[in-house]
Amino acid sequence: MDFSKLSANQQLTVGAAAVMFIASFFTWYGVGGHLSANGWDSGWTAVLSIVLVVAAGVVLILEAMDKATVDSPADLTFYLAAAGLAFVILRMLWRLASLDRKFGLFLALIAAGVATFAAYQNRLDNS
User: Fewest C-beta in 10 Å: which of 8, 39, 74, 105?
Assistant: First the structure.
């Protein structure tokens, strides 16, 4: 796998996808110090956002390995990351009233935003 084949924006997208995966194991919601939920336990919108952003990174890794079979990986990566960002935002808005937002949710929001921005820049460079 040769990451030098990837542009700076593509490398940033892969890095943000890795941060999103790591953030999925941090606490996203909690009540006091007793009850908490990570990204995988925070509902379907959280799980979908994680899967979509990580999939954007996987597409670029496959492209670096010359195994990508899509016609336009730049477009696909952007759409995956943008959809992931949308679902993170929905997860932030649709919370139970008694739960507090925690560090992992904010880290996931930043990672999804960075992945989307970098994928968008990459899409502009390829058009």
Answer: 8
